[in-house]
Amino acid sequence: MEKNEKRIMKITRTVLTAVALTVLMTVMFASSVAADPMFVDPADDMHTANGFAVATPYLDITSYQLSVSTSTGTPIYNATFNMNGKIPASATGFVAWELLVDADYNAMTAPCGHYWLLDHQIGVDYVIRFYIRGNSFGAEAYTCDSNSGSQISMTPPTVKVQGNQVTLLFCESDIGMATVFAYVFATVQYSKYTYHVTSCDFVKADIAPNYGYESFGGYVVPAIRFSA
User: Fold this and answer.
1) Measured CA distances, 68 to 26, 171, 175 (Å)
2) Nearest to 204 by CA among 191, 192, 188
3) Neighbouring C-beta atoms of residue 96, cutoff 10 Å
4) How far is residue 222's CA from residue 212's CA, in Å, rounded to a whole number?
């Protein structure tokens, strides 16, 4: 009888230890990742300067999410675009998947100038993007000199492309060490390479959210999203 009781107590301690470790690992993982929800964006809602455009599936955002992981000790941001079509190996002209960041919540500070029809009136301080130009691919993170407007390159993001998904991984230094900021996801077809968008460069785009902007880090604003 005593042997059975000791055996049961040993098994109980082992089970409780395993449960405690599982809870601890879950808490540690949860505390290392902060994420906005996976927001939904309706299909076929691309636009030109003059109104709605025929959507290009691989530029048509269907959902998007921004998160940050600190599990390695250094914050790594993760911007995920889910598209309505597979990402191609080549494209006509210059197309880009962009995260536009207003690092100081100030619409008046936009060192690269306002992004025509793309920024939803936020003051874009930093741009993180992946692009396809003809048969070539590239990625860049940049801001601009507030006086001259010239481009200032940051560390390019790591890009993962799989099927209809594009993921941009970048460091906090790419957005001025900001932890609370406003942002907009954008996919754009340009007539040529550009880092300062004007009506001459813009062909068509999909912006998410549809109106307003998202907020990261706790400061909440009313973004307007349409149902899919």
Assistant:
1) 17, 9, 13
2) 188
3) 23
4) 7
Question: 99-108 burial by CB neighbour count: b if 16+ within 10 A, else e?
Answer: bbbbbebebe
- Residues 55/46, Cβ–Cβ less than 8 Å: yes
In the chain, domain spans: 1-33, 36-216
**pLDDT score recorded for residue 73:** 84
pLDDT per position as a tens digit, 18-48: 333 333 333 333 346 788 889 999 999 999 8
In one letter, which amino acid is 228?
A
The residue type at 188 = V
Contact 209, 61 (CB under 8 A): no
- CA–CA distance, 70 with 78 (Å, rounded to integer): 11
Work out the average pLDDT over 63-76. Answer: 92
Question: For residues 183 and 201, what is the distance between their CA atoms, to the nearest angstrom?
Answer: 22
Q: What is the DSSP letter of 97?
A: E
Would the CA dihedral through 178, 158, 68, 106 be positive or negative?
positive
Residues 203, 181, 120, CA angle at the centre, nearest 5°?
30
**Residues recorded for the chain:** 228
